[in-house]
Amino acid sequence: MTPGPLLAVADPLFSDGVDLTVVLIVVGKTVAVFALLLVAVMFYVWFMRKVIADMQNRIGPHRAGPFGVLQTLADAIKLFFKEQSSPDTADPWVYRLAPYLAILPAFLAFAIVPIGGEVTVAGHRTFLQLAELPMGILFLIAMSGLGLYGVMLAGWSSGSKYPLLGSVRASAQMLSYEAALGLAIIGLLLQSGTLSTRGIVDLQAWTGSWGSLGDWPLAQWLIWPALVPFLIFLVAAIAETNHPPFDLVEAEQELVGGFHTEYTGIRFAIFFLAEFMNLITMSAIVVTLFLGGPAGPGIGALDADGWFNAWIMPVFWFLLKLLVLLYGTVWIRATLPRLRYDQLMSLGWKFLIEAALLWAMIAAVIRVGGDQGWSMWIVVPGAVAGAAALYGLLWASMPRPGELVEEIR
Amino acid sequence: MGKLSGFGVTIRQVFKKPVTGFFPRTKRPKPKRFHGRHVLNRYEDGMEKCIGCELCAAICPAKCIYVRAADNPPDAPVSPGERYGFVYEINYLRCIHCDMCVEACPTEAITESKLFEFSFTNRDDAVYTKAELLVDDSGRAKRQPWELWLDPSEDDNTSAWMRATSPGGRAVFEGRVAWSGELGYGTRPPEVGQSATPDPGIVADPPASPVARIDLPRGRG
Question: Is position B71 within any domain?
Fold first, then answer.
């Protein structure tokens, strides 16, 4: 599987100009994505509580609604009825703005995720995706960066010690793991050649042939050629969203509540919503970039372009993969203890960024070698040796832990 | 697997049964000598066992018992003794259910039932008076409106039998009746079977101490 030229796949919805139907379709998609995200967050909180309970030999919520599915709704309703107090020392405007700054990027980042394939709505062909941008991945990174503002301003505008400390730590953590995220994406881009999410998903679809091993159904998934970026992206995404085990900044034992200490009621609910929404979006991005997104077999007996195979099956595969990934994040939450802040920072700066850069260098050399037709027997060992030499040089020039102290003495 | 072996631990628990019980739909059976709410017992002829000696109030570590004795009226004695418990109150906001009052009582008057599912909404309800603590004419504990008696037969097995057969000390009561009779129950039969499974920790006499024992003359008290 070789990446083609830079794909700029525009949504066929706009190919005939924009009239009222097109606008209504876009509005409909927006409302659908909005509702899907909110329901997904509600579902995820219930799912997380049930799965963690399973792993701890107990049952989770089972009173509110069948199997406790309405528990999240009950908690949200309780939060809505709480008194909205704000500290005297809080900055009045920023304090009220910060939760929305946290949640809007979470909503927006989901816009570029392809949920399904190409469908026909009211006579127009369109993707089951809110916005198809040629630089979709950049949009995602931009939105993650904006989410940082919500956290930072929340802590600063609260006007008290613990929120400020928590927000400073949280924003430093999110910043450093964004660097790792971006570098992992560079590693992915070397394999995909395009920034558009629809293009990446189309690259991973099965072409229908069963020729060599590389043509088999799951072999086009970008997780295989980009395994290291996948792992780095996964860890960086979990750290970016302040998900356990990287949740020191909002742990009760550490900083009372971190940046959301002074928030109650709806504003607190919005922060939590934003965190889980970010996690769901990041998982959806992982599914899109590495696991093929909505790609999957349709029901062979039914018509390939019929409404079932076009509407239901891609969405089903996307949701199934998303569910597996969300189970993985809950599994991680239930298993790993919290990382200390310096462990967190050194993992991000000293391990992930280095690994991503090294991998990007080696993969770039291999890619160029492949394009130029050089022998892989020379290119691969040469790339690895060159990277090892560079890394060894860097490591040798760094001071050892005890050296600096001796110089001062 | 090193750092990743933790994931195996959590995923293995998914396939095990949860240990959550569905209280109050299902309840775990309580041990026979469970410490719950107190009752004041009566003899088979209906006379109260409490003689108002206040030993229970003296020993109570939480100071939750209040006893005042009164002379038995000669024509209608309440208890077979000179005095009876005229005022007897237990404050359940303070009681820690240690059962030291049960151990201290010389007449086996105060014992504990197995009821613990009781809660109050005001302080007055929490202070149980003698009328509420005394067993009724059939020898069973009186039910208050805020108490949840889910298993009446189990909760009524309260008596000095419980106190005397408690595995706390070296008392060997196998086959011997060492307690008085109760209203409604008569004299409870002795428990048998303890010596079939001897506890290796309990010996007839303690081993000889390596330190020479100094026998002090026994004085008063």
Answer: yes
